[in-house]
Amino acid sequence: MRSPQFRPLRFGVTRVTLKDGVQGTHYLKADQELNAYPDRLTDRLQHWAIHRPQQTIFARRVKLADGSLGDWRHVTYAEAWNTARNIAQGLINRGLSADRPVVILSENSLEHALLALGCMVAGVPFVPTSPPYSLVSQDYDKLKHVLRTVTPGMVFASDARYAKAIVATVSNDIEIVMYEGGVEGKQVTRFEDLCNTTSSSQVDAAIADTGPDSIVKFLFTSGSTKMPKAVINTQRLWCANQQQMAQSMPVLTESPLVLVDWLPWNHTFGGNHNFGMVVFHGGTMYIDDGKPTPALMHETLRNLREIAPTVYFNVPTGFEAIAQAMKTDDLLRKTLLSRVQMFFYAGAALAQPIWDSLYESQEREIGQRIVMTTGLGMTESGPFGIFVTNPNVRAGDLGVPTPGLELKLVDMGGKTEVRYRGPNVTPGYWRNDEETKGAFDDEGFFCTGDAVKWIDETDVHLGLKFDGRIAEDFKLATGTFVSVGPLRGKIIAAGAPYIQDVVLTGINLKEVGAMVFPTAAVRALSGMAADAPLADVLASAPVLAQFQKVIDELAKTATGSAARIARMCLLSEPPTIDKGEITDKGSINQRAVLSHRADTVAALHEDRLHFILKPNPSF
Fold first, then answer.
1. CA-to-CA distance for 469 and 314, rounded, in angstroms?
2. For residue 1, is pLDDT > 50?
3. Scanning 69, 116, 142, 216, which has the fewest C-beta atoms within 10 Å of its C-beta?
4. How many domains does the chain have?
5. CATH assignment at residue 515
6. What are phi and psi of 183, to 5 degrees?
7. Share of residues in the chain with pLDDT > 90 (%)
8. Radius of gyration (Cα) for the chain, nearest Å?
9. Contact 235/122 with Cβ under 8 angstroms?
10. 276 in any annotated domain
11. Any domain includes 588
12. Each residue's pLDDT tens digit, 289-340
């Protein structure tokens, strides 16, 4: 039988060097050296403004009076450069600096993009902040923490939706800038006025004063049991990482780059990886107001029917929805697959049924498969760090280090932690010397907490695969270690498409349990009315029968107590941002869920829940 053919995709790093250190320690790096990169990302913006002045850098659909979205509004490179210079002058006039940066509360938008570019030109750090900290949170604790940590001189919000949060958290000595709307009882500067500031030679001087060590932004981690930390992002970190990406993913340089992207800019994936990629390569980003949720996915699909990206980035839930839609949506298949050269996912495991469905649609439409790639990175690494090396990617594969990044592989009592050292690694956390000191080892490697294994121990050039988070792993009462990452991925794959995520339980207990966050697909499975309470849906016979099959199938292949799910419950209460259980990108925080749902964990293991699924005793 003929092997499936992939649309041609060149990989930049295929050879690595492995060196032994002290006992239990090894060092891994790409054979390819890191090429030169600019001192600041602003240089690339200016370059494209000169050479591609009329090309679109960002586009977003216009919001109409009835709340719907209309045609695209485009911002060219020339417009972006000139507006950024004007904004920069306004920031210089106000004396803003790293000690008094600009906090951006709002979601992705043209105004957000222009303000960020203006900050870059002025050399004033900006702080993209998770919108749910303002719009979803009830106590605003994380937003207050952000403001206390960075002490802003200016806060930007797109509209009056943010007014309540601003009143509760922003002191009167901080200037508020808004695109539209206002805040009762507070003076507001119009964003338009900031854009209309006339730039002067002070802007050119500010550009000249910035360099590789200049702080360009603070990105906050998602936070777990502690408050989020402000990761320092320098120009060196951002520019080096973009050059690393270009060398690991040559596809970025081989044709004009077009992205259709929803990933939030307060996260490193959307805000550094993708936003920076567009500026670095002179590409175009269509800002997608959709999101991989039942309420907003239709907008993403609409955009992908109209705009054909050259590469496409998303999280697994997004690809799952796209895979399902492509089965019957001819226009979506035709447009999306017309020129995309690479798919890339991150943030969680991608279940095998999703891969299979995507491949089936691709072979049906274009007679080839699109390479689905992934890797490993984090806010502290820019984020790009490790990337796959061939088209035959399997779930959990990570690949090899990008040029210029050295990996240190350290034995941690049976697990291997991967650590990073390179120009794309943060110098530390803003105003948090204690956390900074604890994050690096005695050789200056950043301790990631991620565990890895070799894809093939006989061929190091294939690279590494994910082996979970060391901090998430735990012991049963028997002393047996439970490797959370791989087991979690196995459960999600076995339960597709009905499992959104899962949190494993059983710390210091006799058995492993699983608390499941279901997907919206369980509603159709139940056969109940669309507005039926989720708790009733999860208690329905068809849903319980489906999950009984899942736990039985898992039991058949379990190799021991640490791999056997002995009990399972379905959670009707979704994870919350306020409690740090989930980020606005959709990543589950295992430790936070276990902490805040300790009563449910105890009830699951003490047989006190109304519905507890257990494997058939014969398995």
1. 22
2. no
3. 69
4. 1
5. 3.30.300.30
6. -130, 120
7. 80
8. 24
9. no
10. no
11. yes
12. 999 888 899 999 999 999 999 999 998 889 989 999 999 999 999 999 999 9
